[in-house]
Amino acid sequence: MPHITLRDVTKEYPPAKRGGDPVVAVDGVSLEIERGDVFGIIGYSGAGKSTLVRLINALEPATAGSIEIDGVDVTRLSATKQRQMRTGVGMIFQRFNLLNSRSVRRNVEYPLEVAGWKGSDRKKRAVELLEFVGLADKADNYPEQLSGGQQQRVGIARALAANPAILLADEATSALDPETTDEVLDLLAKVNRELGVTIVVITHEMEVIARIATKVAVMERGRVVEQGETYDVFTQPQTTTAQRFVRTVVRNLPTGDELIELRSQHEGRFFTISFTDAGASEARVFGALARAGVDFNLVYGGVDSIQGRVYGLLTIAVRGDAAAVDEAMRSIGSNVTVEEVAA
Ligand SMILES: Nc1ncnc2c1ncn2[C@@H]1O[C@H](COP(=O)(O)OP(=O)(O)OP(=O)(O)O)[C@@H](O)[C@H]1O
Which of 46, 52, 57, 274 is surrounded by the fewest CB atoms within 10 Å? Predict the structure, then answer.
């Protein structure tokens, strides 16, 4: 059974103006998130990502559809049961949401206080978690004395306090610089790996997806327009939106201007060659071209690593008579996509 199942979930808000149309923030979304997944949900601002998180956490009722956690429909629980359910779901936020009047340790203790834990148990658990996130030495500091990345690590410790099986991360690294983002993403990967926590990562940054999500859903205007294994979405994005997101990370296709420049520098016909790790490699492609006896140059692109797996996207210029070039391109073989770049 999936850990989290959304079936045809819709959320409408009342019209902004009287007599206007309702705002459909989430529109018929169905998702299955397996236990232990790091599941990414990506979309531009207004796509409905934060609304979806509030629905999963039962902070708001859905207008239609069902949301099951461990097979239990959270939309139909009593208020008391919903509160209990929520202790099994940790959450971290873009702005960390720490209490500045409390020390780091007492911030981590906060959810345990609310849950009625006794003082000594709370303290023990908070110290243990601060060790886990690498901030044991900051226990008595105040949030304002910490960097953004450290504050988010405190946020993660707090979210884990009650031992949740699910962690929802809503734009958790959007306020951080790239280096600190890596540090926080590494910690989330450790939470997933060592504690087995299912993590749902909401973001507008494809880099974040590439770094930690094993699966991804792309949202646009309240709908999931594409979803799958992260590697598959990166190597074969189907929708324009997914293609645009992929291009923010995998920049190995020349733009129109770059192509004009490249053509002025290199003679011959231009081809793009793409391959995944399903039986192809740069060496095999170049080997086949060399054996075919055509003259070629790699003019753009290279080989990327997505989720530790190889993805090649090369633009080459090939010289020779038309039939020889056609034959050479055919000889590259299966598991490789070859397309001629229109002149
Ligand atoms: N409480 C609300 N009342 C009315 N409309 C809302 C409410 N919350 C969200 N919306 C609308 O629902 C749509 C989706 O918003 P949502 O915040 O879920 O998107 P998002 O993808 O998380 O974007 P962002 O990253 O900008 O928050 C938007 O059009 C937004 O204006």
Answer: 46
ipTM of the prediction: 0.95
Structural domain spans, the chain: 4-249, 256-340
Cα-to-centroid distance, 21 and ligand 1 (Å): 15
Between 5 and 278, the more confident residue is 5
Q: State the pTM of this model.
A: 0.88
Residue type, 158: R
In CATH, the architecture of 4-249 is: 3-Layer(aba) Sandwich (3.40)
* Residue that the structure tokens 């859905």 belong to: 62
Q: 148: exposed, middle or buried (C-beta count within 10 Å: 0-12, 13-18, 19+)?
A: middle
- pLDDT recorded at residue 261: 95
**Encoded amino acid at 94, one letter:** Q
> What confidence tens digit (pLDDT) does each residue in 263-291 have?
999 999 999 999 888 877 888 889 988 89
Residues flanking ligand 1, CB < 6 Å:
13, 23, 25, 43, 45-51
Nearest CA to ligand 1 atom 10: 25
| Integer Cα distance of 315 and 338 in angstroms | 10
3-class DSSP state of 217: strand
- Give the long-range contacts of residues 69-72, CB within 8 A, separation 24 or more: 69/3, 69/4, 69/166, 70/1, 70/3, 71/1, 71/5
Q: Which two tokens stand for residue 172?
A: 């958790």
Q: Does domain 256-340 have CATH number 1.10.3720.10?
A: no
Residue with tokens 């055919």: 330
